Amino acid sequence: MSSKNNKHIKNEDTVDTVHADGSKGTEINREMITADGMRVNHTNENDTINEGDVKNEIYIPHEREDKQAEEREDKQAEEQDEKKVASLAAVWPVIYRWMKPYGLAVAILLIFIAADAVFDWGLAFVQGFFVDAIQDGGQQRLNSTAIIFVAILGGFIVLLAMHRYVLVWLKESMHRDMSMDLLKLLNRMPYAWVRRQKSGDVMLRIKEDTKHGAEVVEAIAEGVTVVFIIALSLGYLYRADAWVAVIALISSAAIWFTARLYDERIVRLSDEVESREGESQQQIQQYVEGIPVIQTYHAAPWFLTRFRTQQQSLNRVQAKLQMMLSMSDNVAMAVFGLAQLAALFLIALSAARGTLSPGMVVASSLLFELVVWPVLGLSSQWSQMQSSVGAFGRISAWLERADKMAEKMDVSKEIQETNIQARGILLNRKSDEALDVATEKVPDQVLDKTLENNLNKTLDAVGDSERYKHEPNNAEKQSPWGALSHEQGIAEQTAYQIKNQESELVMLRLRQVTVSDEESGRTILEQITLNLVPGELVAVVGASGAGKSTLCQVCAGLIEPTTGNVMLHNKEVTQYLAMDSQSTVTYMPQTPTFFTGTMAENIRLGRDVALDKVKLAAEQAGLHEFIEAQEGQYEALMQEKGANLSGGQQQRLSLARLFLRTSDVYILDEPTSSLDVQTEHHVMKHLLTFMKGKIGLLVTHRMEVAQQCPRILVMDQGRIVEDGTHEQLMESKGLYYHMNGKNS
């Protein structure tokens, strides 16, 4: 294979895949190296290879799935979950999940609930006892009994206070746990899913739904208390007058089922109110964040008109909800009034017949109310429980999504492990065949020497930024396998890959990555195949909308490709974000994010790092002098959204975070866009030193920054159209050449 007769040197990688449905497929990835050292990736999807025909191919694990249909199904499932009306039976496992850690508190609460029920029932019983005692004229008995009852009353008051304390503590503990768990869940969910959620809805889930969900504890406690009171009261009424007990029971059932006629509409309207309140909160948030634009563009009338329309819609739904609640209460009160008249009539007849004493008349009247009236309260508690169930239903939908995502990741992991095993078997078998072919045609001393030389070349290339500075018009030097024939070169390449599989695993490998917009179907990235190795900081340039930021997010594992995959350490890069351990990938977004706390805390972001290291990172980012000049220095408080920092200072603080982290891969999206030339030079000097031995991808629109990187990718319309060093790209006079103004 001679450079004089061939414009390109071609390396072929056969890709053996095992898909989720168990089917197998093979692709050929061809990496074309031009004579001047530039690389062009090409995949012929129509090339197929039968396993029995393969003699000299390299099998590389690769997973290619069409995820568009799956994403559409996921989105439809989310929409169905939002429309679905939750039931207590459906969400009880979720409620139990957060109540289970507090089993002892629940058991103690049940004891207090029983004491509460006995107290309410006992008050009616005691009043009847006093009336009979007065009529009997037992003054001494009355005094002694009163003292006993006062002492018992004091004990019950203490128990009721403890009952309230335990109930509030349990409710707030569950509220705290649910909020924490949902925040952890958000951290584990795919970034694309999180980005799809409305910020107002997210706030409602974490703030309001967890609050309403925790209130289910109080609703259940009150409901159990009412049931105890009704049971005790019915027992007394049955002994006094069975008919009164029957009327009380029938009336309670009538009130209960009448109120239930409105439940479904109340729950549906409550969900609609929650949704519209989320939209309202989102609009308020947008208004506060957009004050500079709203003021300078005089956009307040336009925004307030939209907000008024949204609020009017919310008010209409709220009015419907209040009317429905009012109708439910009024109908229940009407049934209660009729039942009470009937019960008093029967009690009066029994008293006239002499079957009830005056004290029993008083007690029966009060206990009838204790049977029927609490049902009204129980109905109210049931409505509150339905609100809590709705909140748990929305929380449960998030949990189900998280479980499905975890299941998908487990399946993906199994597929990858299957591919790895298949690769090992095939490599071992093919290497034996290929080496046999090579040793037949090449003397041992020549093969050994060539293997040694090429091994040294490749190992140097992996850790050396000079990898892409090839000598022009010398294709044999550019290709590690150029000294041998094609057949012998394949054999040598196979042997080398077997010896050096571990070094391959540290690569960040993109294989046929395509990303499409879920809503419009527009292709953002198209068929990106790319290898990033330690020791090189790769610059990415291109026009706005070329896909640079999306490429960063894909490499960082924040966005899952529509097709293709991104592998690091033989795992999908998205799996690292789901791990609780130290992240293997560090991503610096284009827009910095800040948190309440000190300057040092905003640099550390929770890491247990000594202040000296924090200062060193700030020095590398060119921020140390500014922080030292502040009152409190590194303990100076950060204002909301970093308002006390300029745009350049915000970017430097974000860079300090990056310098403080230890990761395998660093993704930087426009890290110097807000810096002056002098600071940019300082940062790039430290960044190039920092990136030695690490994988780096840097998006920039400044050609001066790109020129300092040993490798440059040029993107256009979602594709990598050029790949090489600054000198090579300028010599080729392509898109990069024109971006540099033709004179750099």
UniProtKB/TrEMBL annotation:
Regions crossing the membrane: 102-126, 146-170, 216-236, 242-262, 331-352
Domain ABC transmembrane type-1 as annotated: residue spans: 107-387
Skewed-composition ranges (Basic and acidic residues): 9-30, 52-80, 464-474
Membrane topology: Multi-pass membrane protein
Molecular function GO labels: ABC-type oligopeptide transporter activity; ATP binding; ATP hydrolysis activity
UniProtKB keywords: ATP-binding, Membrane, Nucleotide-binding, Transmembrane, Transmembrane helix
Superkingdom classification of source: Bacteria
Leader sequence residues: none
Annotated stretches, region: Disordered: 1-80, 462-482
UniProt xrefs under CDD domains: ABC_6TM_exporters (cd07346)
Name recorded for this polypeptide: ABC-type multidrug transport system fused ATPase/permease subunit
Source organism of this protein record: Paenibacillus amylolyticus
Top-level taxonomy: Bacteria, Bacillati, Bacillota, Bacilli, Bacillales
